[in-house]
Amino acid sequence: YEDTTGPLIIDFLRELGFTVDAPVVVPDGEPVGAAITAAVEGGARVVLTTGGTGLTPTDRTPEVTRALLEAEIPGIAEAIRAYGVAQGVPTAVLSRGLAGVVGSCVVVNLPGSRGGVKDGLAVLRPVLVHAAEQVVGSDH
Questions:
Q1: 50: closest CA among 71, 84, 23?
Q2: Structural domains for the chain
Q3: pLDDT at position 45, please?
């Protein structure tokens, strides 16, 4: 299927000064965990996933992400949901996306819709660089 959110995320990360590879598109479930692990092992400072955060039986991204997290950053995930609700999207509360740290990498699960991704990026814009710096021991 066509990846409509990857290009948004790539542009966003580049605007913040991150060096970004092409988006990696994988099926939900264990392939997401494998892709996160590969990115972290490859030196990624930030990994943003999209989709697989809802309530359907195939939505497994939070479960595979949780298994990898060394520390959660609950405020990010909570803020993304709250932002969506504030934008008039009551179903944003149904997202089970997580945020946390794997190694020296900040990992955030974003919703799969373009609107959900845009909301998530709006929340991340003022904090993501600082979070990535803190994870490697630099505060500013």
A1: 23
A2: 6-135 (3.40.980.10)
A3: 97
